[in-house]
Design brief:
Blueprint: E1 10-14, H1 19-30, E2 34-38, H2 42-56, E3 61-63, H3 71-85, E4 90-93, H4 109-137, E5 140-145, H5 158-178, E6 183-190, H6 199-202, H7 205-212, H8 224-234, E7 245-248
Parallel strand pairs: 1-2, 1-4, 2-3, 4-5, 5-6, 6-7
Helix pairs in contact: 1-8, 3-4, 4-5
């Protein structure tokens, strides 16, 4: 058996209708997992699920739209996944929001709360909902997609960075709590990745040049380059890793 084999596993991935989340879903399906595609809008989710089913066989993917801002939506997502596939082995908390770009001195209370609610508390909710059935089976892998923004200061993404730093501690703490039940909890900390979410940081050639000038690999990453790390953490290859933050940034933070 391949160290990266996910046959028989069921993965729920939030924010998986595009970008990093979609790449993770596609690569996990490629390794044998059944996947639940989820983001706010139904049609994009259904399109991704249909593409995965076309590539790997009917029944490999389902679409369950849900907003991470809604606890009821997240509960419905978990219930639908278990109703369809009987269990959840892998949870990827990938969806996030960042409604503000600028210095901390200018952020409104509502914007700050939305960032913390969506990027930290929503992951906490979802993990609370999923972990009990993992604990019953003594098997589970939880991955929180954080960011290198949580490792350093920034003049324009401060609140987002604060939320992503909190993700690291969330993973560490839950790794301690759930470890005796053989549930592993880890973070991936991407650098600049070519997604719509990060478009403000790469769409302008001058901004892109500034962003990559001091990065050893001299380029930004692709969603697939995060998906490989997610597969690793979810698979037998990562079975002795928990409470960690794996940086995937082309060397930007060094």
């Amino acid at each position: 058996m391949s160290l990266f084999d996910l046959s028989g596993k069921v993965a729920v991935i939030t924010g998986s209708s595009r970008g990093i989340g979609r790449a993770i879903a596609e690569r996990m399906a490629e390794q044998g997992a059944r996947v639940v595609i989820s983001s706010r809008k139904a049609e994009p989710c259904e399109q991704v699920a249909a593409a995965i089913n076309a590539a790997h066989g009917e029944g490999r993917a389902i679409a369950v739209p849900a907003s991470i801002a809604s606890k009821d939506d997240l509960k419905r997502l978990v219930e639908a996944a278990i109703a369809a596939f009987g269990k959840i082995d892998i949870l990827v908390c990938n969806a996030a929001s960042n409604p503000y770009y600028g210095p901390m001195s200018g952020i409104s209370d509502d914007q700050f709360r939305k960032i913390l609610d969506n990027n930290v508390i929503a992951s906490h909710w979802l993990i609370q909902m999923v972990a009990p059935q993992m604990a019953e089976r003594k098997d589970g892998a939880i991955i929180i997609v954080s960011s290198i923004g949580g490792l350093r200061g920034t003049p324009v993404l401060g609140a987002y960075g604060i939320s992503k730093a909190a993700d690291f501690q969330l993973a560490r703490n839950l790794a301690v709590e759930y470890g005796p039940s053989n549930i592993r909890v880890n973070c991936i900390a991407p650098g600049l990745i070519k997604t719509d979410f990060a478009r403000a940081l790469w769409d302008n050639p001058e901004t892109l040049q500034r962003s990559t000038a001091n990065t050893p690999l001299r380029r930004i990453g692709e969603p697939d380059e995060i998906a490989g790390t997610a597969v690793y953490l979810a698979s037998p290859a990562g079975s002795f890793i928990t409470g960690q933050a794996i940086v995937v940034d082309g060397g930007a933070t060094i």
